[in-house]
Design brief:
The chain has one domain. It is mainly alpha-helical. The two termini are 15 Å apart. It has helices at 4-38, 48-72. Helix 1 (4-38) runs antiparallel to helix 2 (48-72). 78% of the residues lie in helices and 0% in strands.
């Protein structure tokens, strides 16, 4: 059984990784399409489907961020 310090550091590394994936999901699925749209770059999808896909990526990022909060909530004293 690892010590509390080792456990906490591993949990923090895991939380950092998951939060980075969450931020990348939001950047790739929401921010990048908005920037492309603002410059008039055509995308593979448009209209309502593009909005739904962006919302799905935003929800994915939010769920991953909530998972990070749960991981950090398990830190030991």
């Amino acid at each position: 059984m690892p010590s509390d310090l080792v456990f906490n550091e591993r949990a923090k590394y895991l939380a950092t990784f998951i939060n980075t994936v969450a931020a990348a999901s939001v950047a790739a699925g929401v921010i990048a399409p908005l920037v492309a749209f603002s410059y008039g770059v055509p995308g593979p999808i448009g209209g309502a489907l593009a909005i739904v896909v962006s919302l799905a990526w935003l929800c994915c990022g939010a769920v991953l961020h909530l998972l990070v909060r749960a991981v950090l909530g398990r830190l030991r004293e």
